[in-house]
């Protein structure tokens, strides 16, 4: 056998294997789509379809840029196509159903409607059309195939992060429909390439996800990134298109070291949802969360990564009562976001800086979300505390923020704005965290400090100043009213949380029956009324405050054994607090402070410090540079002198930890 013959046979074998892999992927996709139960929807669509292929209840002239009614036409055609292909039903290969699909497609092909929002034209419509084309692949007419592939070809492989994943997968589907193996390989390869950490938009090295010019989106676009990435890992497993192992490992890290920390059981933190909280159901508690689906996808692989941890995540995210609770703290330095988790208690802080954008506004959506990154705190003990509350919120009293109480919040701005200050960040040793926000918005300034530990959430504010002749308040919480509001001394108890004002702060509370509609926060949503009772707790600073302060503690109401916490300082230059074996210090300027457990602590540069004594013989010093600009940090703890080399590049702002011997600490 000569070399040419051998080469021919090798190429033939490779082509046969590739064709086999193409068919394997097609079969897996069809199984995925056809397994979904049709609850009579297809039969109803068939009954209501007009003779020209349209549906009379759809307004094809509505130009809505978010909920575009015309997109439903394509989705309905695909529902009928899947019903035709689904075995075991009366509609399986029913000629009437096939004719209805053809009419619906021809209606669309002939008119080829477009939307002002590029997403619908290049992603929404092609993504909705592709499954129907694939399941009818062998039955397509020449016109259906030509026109269908023409529409799919609008999805150019471009953009970043989740938008790129959608665009590339549409191209892979186009290749599977047309038989273009090279296109399939290129498209799936580009998705694999996008599963990476980047310094700009997309998955970050701290396992948070940014989208739309620096907005935190781990539960918005990031949810799709998690589900689609893990679904593709499962879909392509064992084929020549399979994701490389390091990409699968990175997806597991994204779920386990990132996204799951921003979810309490089945309740996703609204602070990581972006503008999607303005969509009905955006803050609800689903029976099956996207994290449970993503975990299941990875567990279905032949060799799943971190299988034990994924199993625990799947149980938690599915609401299994016996699932082990997530315990620990994280600061996501790439997203200005801090989170703390314990059994029965969740707390988080979301901020923005000169590096991170505040919030996302898209035309009609998230009209009142101005303050969503102004130090918003999410507080949960059971989940569902904020589910669906957003149409009823006073958007100038979001939990945790310090804000002017203007007569009316102007809808629609700001949009994806970065802040003016750089001293914004956090430090965490994995069990506790400190988060600090040098806050400025339109001339209103404040130094905001959150200490998250087993003592609860301690919030401090200093240097609160404003020249505008408008009332300024700091909101502690605004949530659904559940049960009674109880007061014992200064402590207020509501819905399993205990609120304690400190250092002279005074709470004002209100329980109000409110009504509103989703349309107030999303111009293209329904005006149907939403109502309910809302509990709000806040601290007033008056008009034109000058160097005002606040201090309060929030902890689970039933935790009598929680350690006491002491405020050591609360000034614009220095904020600090400690428990028996833990101290949190924000040096807004070089300085020093005396602590009970660690002696004198001094910093030569502005920084954040978290100190812990796990035993009598040692201590741990954790520190960070919120500005992300320093290369070294000089600290002293008692008699111990530390010269810490700080992370650079995309790890700038991350925590560094050093152990020191307890005898070096001056008492």
Alpha-carbon Rg, integer: 28 Å
Strand percentage lies at: 25-35%
Largest sheet: 8 strands, antiparallel
CATH third-level topology of the largest domain:
Beta-galactosidase, Chain A, domain 5
Order of strands across the main sheet: 11-12-13-14-21-18-17-16
Weakly predicted, low-confidence segments:
6-14
- State the end-to-end distance: 86 Å
Query: How confident is the prediction overall: mean pLDDT?
Result: 93
Specify the overall morphology: globular
The number of E-state strands comes to 31
What is the top-level CATH class of the largest domain? Answer: Mainly Beta
Q: What is the helix content? A: 25-40%
Look at the helices and sheets and give the structural class. alpha+beta
Q: What is the CATH-assigned architecture of the largest domain?
A: Distorted Sandwich
Query: How many H/I helical runs?
Result: 12
Total tally of structural domains: 3
């Amino acid at each position: 056998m000569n070399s040419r013959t051998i080469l021919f046979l090798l190429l033939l074998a490779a082509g046969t294997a590739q064709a086999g892999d193409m068919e394997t992927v097609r079969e897996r996709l069809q199984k995925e789509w056809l397994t979904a139960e049709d609850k009579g929807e297809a039969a109803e669509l068939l009954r209501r379809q007009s003779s020209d292929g349209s549906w009379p209840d759809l307004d094809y002239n509505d130009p809505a840029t978010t909920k575009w009614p015309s997109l439903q036409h394509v989705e309905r055609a695909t529902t009928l196509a899947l019903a035709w292909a689904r075995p075991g039903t009366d509609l399986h290969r029913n000629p009437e159903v096939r004719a209805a699909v053809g009419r619906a497609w021809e209606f669309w092909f002939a008119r080829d409607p477009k939307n002002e929002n590029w997403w619908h034209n290049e992603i929404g419509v092609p993504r909705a059309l592709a499954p129907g084309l694939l399941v009818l692949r062998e039955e397509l007419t020449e016109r259906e195939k030509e026109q269908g592939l023409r529409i799919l070809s609008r999805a150019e492989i471009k953009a970043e992060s989740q938008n790129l994943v959608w665009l590339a997968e549409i191209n892979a589907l186009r290749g599977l429909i047309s038989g273009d193996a090279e296109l399939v390989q290129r498209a799936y390869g580009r998705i694999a390439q996008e599963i990476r950490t980047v310094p700009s938009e997309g998955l970050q090295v701290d396992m948070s996800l940014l989208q739309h010019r620096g907005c935190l989106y781990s539960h918005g676009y990031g949810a799709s990134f998690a589900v689609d990435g893990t679904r593709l890992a499962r879909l392509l497993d064992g084929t020549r298109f399979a994701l490389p192992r390091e990409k699968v490992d990175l997806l597991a890290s994204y779920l386990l070291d990132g996204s799951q920390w921003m979810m309490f059981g089945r309740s996703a933190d609204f602070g990581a949802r972006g503008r999607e909280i303005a969509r009905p159901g955006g803050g609800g508690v689903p029976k099956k969360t996207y994290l449970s689906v993503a975990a299941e996808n990875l567990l279905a692989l032949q060799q799943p990564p971190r299988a034990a941890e994924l199993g625990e995540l799947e149980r938690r995210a599915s609401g299994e009562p016996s699932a082990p609770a997530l315990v620990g703290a994280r600061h996501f330095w790439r997203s200005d976001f801090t989170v703390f988790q314990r059994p029965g208690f969740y707390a988080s802080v979301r901020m923005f800086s000169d590096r991170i954008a505040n919030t996302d506004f898209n035309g009609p959506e998230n009209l009142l979300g101005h303050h969503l990154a102004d130090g918003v705190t999410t507080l949960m003990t059971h989940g569902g505390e904020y589910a669906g509350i957003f149409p009823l919120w006073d958007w100038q009293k979001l939990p945790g923020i310090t804000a002017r109480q203007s007569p009316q919040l102007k809808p629609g701005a700001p949009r994806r704005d970065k802040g003016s200050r750089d001293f914004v960040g956090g430090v965490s040793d994995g069990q506790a965290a400190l988060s600090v926000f040098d806050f400025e918005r339109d001339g209103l300034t404040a130094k905001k400090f959150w200490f998250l530990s087993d003592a609860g959430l301690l919030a401090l504010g200093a240097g609160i100043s404003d020249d505008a002749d408008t009332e300024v308040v700091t909101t502690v919480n605004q949530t659904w009213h559940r049960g009674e509001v109880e007061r014992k001394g200064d402590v207020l108890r509501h819905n399993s949380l205990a609120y304690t004002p400190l250092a002279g702060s005074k709470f004002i509370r209100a329980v109000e029956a409110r009504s509103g509609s989703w349309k107030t926060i999303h111009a293209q949503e329904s005006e149907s009324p939403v109502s309910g009772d809302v509990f709000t707790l806040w601290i007033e600073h008056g008009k034109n405050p000058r160097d005002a302060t606040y201090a309060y503690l929030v902890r689970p109401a039933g935790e009598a054994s929680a350690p006491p916490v002491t405020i050591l300082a609360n000034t614009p230059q220095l904020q600090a607090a400690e428990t028996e074996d833990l101290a949190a210090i924000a040096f807004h300027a070089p300085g020093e402070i005396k602590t009970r457990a660690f002696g004198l602590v001094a910093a030569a540069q502005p920084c954040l410090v978290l100190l812990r004594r796990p035993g009598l013989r040692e201590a741990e010093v954790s520190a960070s540079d919120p500005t992300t600009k320093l290369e070294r940090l000089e600290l002293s703890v008692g008699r111990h002198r530390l010269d810490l080399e700080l992370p650079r590049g995309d790890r700038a702002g991350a925590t560094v930890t050093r152990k020191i011997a307890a005898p070096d600490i001056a008492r």
